[in-house]
């Protein structure tokens, strides 16, 4: 009997290749007669060092999806945290393997744990979520967001020696085979992970039922349900922005529970429901966070640790940074970053319904300088 073939597409980065090989190894262990091939492409995406991601930037994910739709590959493997939502109409998630440990891990060349680091140590993280929670636990340490993905972060840590330690998803350290330099692992009860952490997804053409059937032995319905809840949460919380928000869903028997927190991660919110209500449970968590004054304040505080910038232009459609503050940086890039932060703030206000309330209240009190919202 002629063996069937599954062609996987992958970027040429070490992590991307290893993620794809992990799935290939698992499926071939279960189906030895199934032939799997890997097509490897260079990224070709510019300016990806400006973007926070794990294995593939937004542009790279879209490139991989285009290759599947053009039938240059049948399947691609993505970190769930890197997915661009929603998927194109012609594509679908065809398999979600078992979730790996959804923990954060701390890498240090000397084997020192975080409590042993000197004040002022420079620690690299991959997201605002990590930075906010870590900074709350270790305020004397400097946590820097490293953009450009895990591969560049590892180069910064191991080759350039520009940072004293690095926080990565624990599952990524396993995929890269670098568990030997993991000094510490943080349980979700201590540091809440980001949505999708520890989950791989296999994406293919929606009409490719054969691929779905071939990958069925790898598929975990429980992990897929957790991902559905976390994706619903992301969609409600502005999925294309890096926010200081953690979320973790767990299937417990016939029930799914999702836990979320903003900022420091201290104040946790839990939402639960039946496993057939995963999407509603995830969306419900986002709604509770956005409607909770304390949680929403955590989002603003993480984006603006030195306080909210003043509104200097009443005719502006959004907040403009104080000109003296921008001038003090002496750097156009810093001004651009502040502009982006202000746009993120405006989007959050619109999402939570704050912008409309502010407009209604403007005529009543033009001198407050505050954003009215219900707590």
Molecular structure report:
The protein has a five-stranded mixed sheet with strand order 2-1-3-10-4. A five-stranded mixed sheet has the order 7-6-8-5-9, with helices on both faces. Strands 11-12-13 form a three-stranded antiparallel sheet. The radius of gyration is 22 Å and the shape is globular. α7 packs parallel to α8. The longest helix has 21 residues, at 332-352. It is built from twelve helices and 13 strands. By secondary structure, the chain is α/β, with parallel strands linked by helices.
Q: Supply the CATH class of the domain at 1-97 and 199-219.
A: Alpha Beta
The CATH superfamily title of the domain at 1-97 and 199-219: Periplasmic binding protein-like II
Q: Class by helix and strand content?
A: alpha/beta
How many beta strands in the DSSP annotation? Answer: 13
Question: Which value, in Å, is the CA radius of gyration?
Answer: 22 Å
Order of helices and strands: EHEHEEEEHEHEHEEHHEEEHHHHH
Question: How much helical structure, as a percent, in the residues?
Answer: 25-40%
Q: Which residues sit in consecutive blocks of at least 5 with pLDDT less than 50? A: 311-342, 352-375
On the 0-100 scale, what is the average pLDDT?
Answer: 82
Q: Give the CA-CA distance, first to last residue.
A: 66 Å
Give the strand content: 15-25%
Instruction: Give me the side-by-side strand order of the main sheet.
Output: 2-1-3-10-4
- Give me the number of helical elements: 12
**Global outline:** globular
Could you describe the largest sheet, including whether it forms a barrel?
5 strands, mixed
């Amino acid at each position: 009997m002629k063996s069937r073939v599954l062609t996987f597409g992958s970027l040429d980065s070490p992590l991307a290749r290893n993620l794809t090989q992990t799935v290939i190894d698992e499926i071939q262990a279960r189906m030895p007669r199934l032939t799997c091939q890997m097509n490897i492409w260079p990224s070709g995406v510019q300016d990806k060092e400006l973007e926070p991601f794990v294995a593939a930037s937004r542009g790279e994910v879209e490139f991989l999806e285009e290759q599947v739709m053009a039938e240059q590959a049948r399947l691609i493997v993505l970190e769930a945290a890197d997915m661009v939502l929603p998927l194109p109409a012609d594509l679908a998630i065809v398999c979600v393997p078992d979730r790996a440990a959804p923990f954060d891990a701390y890498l240090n060349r000397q084997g020192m744990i975080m409590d042993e680091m000197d004040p002022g140590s420079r620690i690299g993280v991959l997201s605002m979520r990590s930075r906010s929670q870590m900074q709350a636990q270790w305020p004397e340490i400097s946590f820097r967001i490293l953009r450009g993905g895990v591969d560049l972060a590892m180069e910064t840590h191991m080759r350039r020696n520009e940072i004293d330690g690095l926080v990565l998803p624990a599952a990524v350290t396993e995929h890269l085979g670098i568990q030997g330099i993991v000094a510490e692992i943080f349980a979700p009860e201590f540091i809440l992970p980001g949505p999708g952490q520890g989950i791989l997804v296999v994406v293919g053409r929606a009409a490719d039922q054969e691929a779905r059937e071939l990958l069925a032995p790898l598929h975990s319905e429980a992990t897929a349900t957790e991902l559905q809840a976390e994706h619903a949460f992301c969609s409600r919380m502005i999925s294309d922005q890096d926010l200081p928000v953690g979320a973790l869903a767990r299937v417990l028997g016939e029930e799914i529970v999702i836990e979320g927190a903003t900022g420091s991660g201290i104040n946790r919110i839990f939402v639960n429901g039946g496993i057939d209500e995963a999407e509603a449970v995830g969306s419900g968590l986002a709604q509770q966070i956005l409607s909770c004054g304390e949680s929403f304040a955590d989002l603003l505080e993480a984006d603006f640790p030195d306080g909210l910038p003043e509104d200097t232009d009443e005719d502006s459609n959004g907040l403009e940074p104080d000109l003296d503050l921008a001038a003090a940086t002496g750097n156009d890039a810093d001004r651009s970053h502040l502009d982006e932060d202000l746009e993120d703030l405006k989007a959050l206000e619109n999402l939570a319904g704050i912008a409309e309330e502010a407009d209604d209240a403007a005529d009543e009190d033009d001198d407050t300088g505050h954003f009215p919202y219900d707590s």
